[in-house]
């Protein structure tokens, strides 16, 4: 049986934190693996805050589905076009003093998610889909 949850975030970090808490409680009801819960919580924070802060999105919709194959997450926002699946990664080999700000979330996203897919919808929205298994 597939379970579904949809969350909408239009504000800043406090609203993102509430979405995280709701998602965590929903996953705990289903006895999800603690590792999956932690990864999902981190991804919600990273993706939603970046869309709101850097992409100037007015809102982010987070759709979660849970079935025997794992957890699916779809993030959709109305911000500027940004494909995190092809954006260049930062040079992580640089010394701390030489490191630039930004891009570390891309590394996290690509390491934590599987079946990562981006599309720009006909409505001009970013849609990022992933599976956590």
Percent of residues in helical segments? 25-40%
Structural class, from secondary structure content? alpha+beta
Task: Kindly give the count of domains.
Answer: 1
The name CATH uses for the topology is Heat Shock Protein 90
Assembly type of the chains comes to single chain
Strand order of the largest sheet: 1-2-3-5-4
CA-CA gap between termini:
16 Å
Portion in strands: 25-35%
- What's the count of strands? 5
The level 1 CATH classification is Alpha Beta
Number of helices: 3
Domain Histidine kinase/HSP90-like ATPase: 14-131
Protein name: Anti-sigma regulatory factor (Ser/Thr protein kinase)
GO molecular function, one term: protein serine/threonine kinase activity
Pfam families: HATPase_c_2
3D architecture notes:
GO terms for molecular function: protein serine/threonine kinase activity. This protein is an alpha+beta fold. The protein has one domain: Heat Shock Protein 90. The protein is 35% helix and 28% strand. It is built from 3 helices and 5 strands; from the N terminus they run E-H-H-E-E-H-E-E. The protein has a 5-stranded antiparallel beta sheet, with helices on one face. A hairpin with a 5-residue loop joins strand 4 (114-120) and strand 5 (126-132). The radius of gyration is 15 Å and the shape is globular.
């Amino acid at each position: 049986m597939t379970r579904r949850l949809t969350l909408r975030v239009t504000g800043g970090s406090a609203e993102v934190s509430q979405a995280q808490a709701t998602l965590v409680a929903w996953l705990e009801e289903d006895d999800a693996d603690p590792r999956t819960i932690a990864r999902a919580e981190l991804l919600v924070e990273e993706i939603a805050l970046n869309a709101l802060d850097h992409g100037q999105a007015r809102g982010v919709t987070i759709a979660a589905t849970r079935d025997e194959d794992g957890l699916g997450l779809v993030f959709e926002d109305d911000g500027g076009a940004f494909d995190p699946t092809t954006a260049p990664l930062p040079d992580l080999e640089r010394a701390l003093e030489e490191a630039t700000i930004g891009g570390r979330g891309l590394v996290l996203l690509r390491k934590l998610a599987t079946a990562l897919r981006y599309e720009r919808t006909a409505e001009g929205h970013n849609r990022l889909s992933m599976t956590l298994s």
